[in-house]
């Protein structure tokens, strides 16, 4: 099974520090340390220092640019976050996850037209990639285009292959569009799953 975070992160940090000791110029080790500081210790300054070190050692890593972008989103520096996500896509232009992350960055920045264009591109490239529909649905919902949001969340729910995942967003879109009966249907499914003890993960 999975190790609890309280046990996993300290072990990961120990191994990461050992890796840096063996090779101080290994960019991915500094990236790992940055993620541990960020997600476990909530040490933003330390995470940023480790990220900057990773960047200085490997300017052409799409992964490092991606993680740096999410860190900047968390800090609220959306302009720089978009630049990092754009660079990640330039380095790996066929990566759908990186393309969706760029759409996410545009969305967080309130640049909905650019986000929508990004998700449209993803859906066109691969109609089986569910994140394209999820991200685009969120933009449609923010723009008040609720029926379009419903269609995208339906497709996301279908593609994700899980009876619960996507239902909260779909229910939200139904409610926004005035389809209260369908919204309550989604809510009831989530409620019953929770009561049965099956409520876990992103929905």
Q: What is the tally of beta strands?
A: 0
Tell me the β content.
Answer: under 5%
| Count of helix runs | 11
Give the oligomeric state of the chains in this entry, treating copies of one chain as homo and distinct chains as hetero. Answer: single chain
Catalogue the unreliable spans: none
Helix fraction? over 70%
Output the radius of gyration: 19 Å
Shape: globular
Largest sheet: none
Structural class computed from helices and strand pairing? mainly alpha
Q: How much is the average pLDDT? A: 94
Order of helices and strands: HHHHHHHHHHH
Termini Cα gap: 22 Å
Summary tags:
76% helix; 203 residues; single chain; mainly alpha
Topology:
Blueprint: H1 5-22, H2 27-39, H3 44-57, H4 62-75, H5 78-91, H6 96-108, H7 112-125, H8 130-142, H9 146-160, H10 167-176, H11 180-195
Helix pairs in contact: 1-2, 2-3, 3-4, 4-5, 4-6, 5-6, 6-7, 6-8, 7-8, 8-9, 9-10, 10-11
Overview of the molecule:
With 203 residues, the protein is mainly α. It has helices at residues 5-22, 27-39, 44-57, 62-75, 78-91, 96-108, 112-125, 130-142, 146-160, 167-176, 180-195. It contains 11 helices and no strands. The longest helix has 18 residues, at 5-22.
Question: Can I get a quick summary?
Answer:
This protein has 203 residues and is mainly α. Helix content is 76%, strand content 0%.
């Amino acid at each position: 099974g999975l190790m609890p975070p309280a046990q996993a992160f300290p072990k990961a940090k120990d191994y990461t520090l050992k890796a840096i000791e063996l090779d101080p110029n290994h960019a991915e080790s500094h990236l790992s340390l940055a993620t541990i500081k960020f997600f476990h210790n909530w040490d933003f300054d330390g995470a940023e220092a480790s990220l900057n070190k990773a960047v200085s050692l490997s300017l052409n890593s799409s992964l490092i640019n991606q993680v740096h972008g999410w860190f900047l989103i968390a800090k609220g520096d959306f302009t720089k976050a978009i630049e990092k996500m754009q660079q990640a896509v330039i380095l790996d232009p066929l990566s759908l996850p990186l393309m969706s992350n760029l759409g996410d960055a545009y969305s967080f920045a309130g640049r909905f037209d650019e986000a929508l264009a990004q998700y449209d591109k993803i859906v066109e490239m691969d109609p089986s990639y569910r994140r394209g529909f999820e991200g685009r649905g969120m933009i449609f919902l923010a723009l008040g285009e609720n029926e379009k949001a419903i269609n995208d969340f339906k497709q996301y729910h279908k593609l994700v292959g899980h009876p619960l995942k996507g239902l909260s967003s779909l229910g939200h879109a139904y409610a926004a569009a005035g389809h209260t009966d369908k919204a309550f249907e989604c809510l009831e499914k989530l409620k019953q799953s929770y009561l049965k003890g099956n409520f876990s993960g992103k929905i």
